[in-house]
Design a protein that fits this description.
Length: 267
């Protein structure tokens, strides 16, 4: 996690390195975006912990976007996200992806279950492509992953299964691809990597054992629970014992009294 950094789009300034914990980004005396320690000076705050990456926007700050979507309060981040703050475009970069292994033969996953490439932005948002075999990415409609952009290569790249994730192999495209904020052509993709094709097609590589999104979206700043509190918090609520409503009981007593009155009154 110590290799996570915010990179300016034109590299006009040095990278802002996000160490574990909470770091604020604000303006210095010249108006340039820098890391700040005072929360009152922070336009946005980034939290790096075992649960992942989070961004919190100050209440009076507007115009903050992640991948083109406005953020008013808080958002979970992925490596490779484009963040617009105060007129600047920053890319959240992680460690550079490992080099692709030599050879063109696809390897089967060790667990027998295949990785999944899931769309998280662009026209393929919400769709899933299992990487149970080599998949072709390109502008041709016959490709396993069709990218509908005029300048996109007909045969852009190939995604191959690998025991540790998936292998991206470029097929001679002009644009290349982006992985976790870095331009690449050949790379080993690990689970959680964000892969970008073209201008707006974003995907995340998910392992078969990747926790569901709900498990990764805990509120920002929520204190950890000890094992006892965690069991109490996750235990199913006890169902209250069934009780006879007081009105029903009173009605039964009243009806019984009236029956006795009528019975003795007739005699």
């Amino acid at each position: 996690m110590n290799s996570i950094r915010l990179q300016f789009s034109n590299r006009e300034h040095g990278d802002l390195v996000l160490s574990p914990g909470v770091r604020g980004v604000g303006r210095d005396e010249s108006g340039r975006l820098v890391l700040v320690d005072d929360p009152a000076r922070s336009l946005v705050q980034f939290s790096v912990d075992r649960r992942g990456l989070w961004m919190q926007v100050r209440d009076d700050v507007r115009g903050v976007h992640i991948n083109g979507r406005p953020v008013r309060h808080m958002a979970m981040l992925r490596l490779g996200d484009a963040i617009h703050v105060d007129g600047h475009r920053l890319t959240l970069c992680g460690p550079q992806p490992p080099a692709a292994p030599a050879g063109d033969e696809a390897e089967a996953p060790r667990s027998g279950a295949s990785m999944v490439l899931r769309g998280v932005g662009g026209p393929h948002h919400g769709r899933a492509l299992p990487l149970d075999k080599p998949r072709l990415v390109g502008g041709l409609r016959s490709c396993d992953l069709h990218i509908d952009e005029p300048a996109f290569a007909e045969r852009h790249a190939r995604l191959e299964p690998h025991p540790e994730g998936a292998v991206l192999r470029d097929l001679g495209s002009e644009q290349g691809s982006w992985v976790n904020g870095w331009p690449v052509r050949h790379a080993l993709l690990l689970p959680g990597a964000q892969l970008i094709f073209g201008s707006q097609h974003r995907f995340v590589l998910e392992a078969p054992t990747t926790p569901p999104l709900a498990a990764l979206s805990e509120p920002f700043g929520e204190p950890d629970l000890n094992p006892v509190d965690r069991r109490a918090a996750t235990a199913p609520p006890r169902r209250p014992a069934r009780r006879v409503p007081w009105l029903l009981l009173a009605a039964l007593l009243l009806s019984g009294a009236l029956s006795l009155l009528l019975l003795y009154g007739v005699r």
